[in-house]
């Protein structure tokens, strides 16, 4: 069986940021992780994609947002085009408009911390 997949939008090379902690937490839980950051490069040894469209996976199990709501809203059409089972809106990335628009596009927005959902405390990731 293949590993579950996740794209982390707003992934960061800064280990103190949640966009990095999420990459590490998902890796530790056996996910195939696709970090997304417009700067590209590498995060935690993984190729970082500049946009969701570049991710080689056809469809994702989850997409986790670590960007402001205004940025997330602009990304929703691309997220809907890629497709995912769960769209995680982490604290600070959510807005009523974002949740409503995501639902209109047929997405399943979950307003919660995707790291905590994995059974990992973000504080334990240092």
UniProtKB/TrEMBL annotation:
InterPro entries: CoA-bd, NAD(P)-bd_dom_sf
Pfam families, per database record: CoA_binding_2
Organism superkingdom: Bacteria
Segments forming domain CoA-binding: 1-93
Alphabetized PANTHER family for the sequence: COA-BINDING DOMAIN-CONTAINING PROTEIN, CYTOPLASMIC PROTEIN-RELATED
Protein name, entry field: CoA-binding domain-containing protein
